[in-house]
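We close this part of the discussion by returning to an individual protein. The sequence in question and its structure tokens are set out directly beneath this paragraph:
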Amino acid sequence: MDPDDRRQQILARAQTLFRERPYGEVSNTEIAAAAGVSRGLLNHYFGTKRELYLAALAEMLDVPPVPVPEYVAGASVRDRVCESVNGWLQLLEDDQETWLAALGTGGDPELEQVVDQAREGIVDHIIEVVGLGPLARSRPEVRGMLRGFSGMAEATSAEWLKRGRLTRHQVHEFLEETLVRLLEDVIPRVLDDPPP
């Protein structure tokens, strides 16, 4: 098998196991067996179980969260936000284990770095969906506010997926309304202030 294909095969099997059980409950021996390779070959590609876990998590979180809604003449920002929020919630619903595991990485700098990169990607997605690219590049506070929204979206999603305190519909309404208000009311007011 081609080395890149073999590496992907190992990553895919590791991702499956890490989605099913916590990191500490999955062994290199088990990952190697699931991938149909020896432990030596697994170590050749990834070094340690931790390095494999970081690579697996980075790849799981690197998937674009939701396709950007196509521009449609006459579609409002709210229409695009609604479609994007719906796609985000579907992604979470389809891959709950990955996202819940990613939220629980506090205190581990390397894992936090992987998750932080995913969070920045989510903010990039929001910026693209709402068409704020040039503004976000020239005014860093726009990105800062959207990063704040992203953190709130994570916490709200955990209330739905982990704690069951909210329904998917409630989360959708909350995120859509909050993001639309942020875009229509808050960001324009903040931009009236001089840049930091």
Q: What stands out?
A: The CA atoms of residues 63 and 124 lie 13 Å apart.
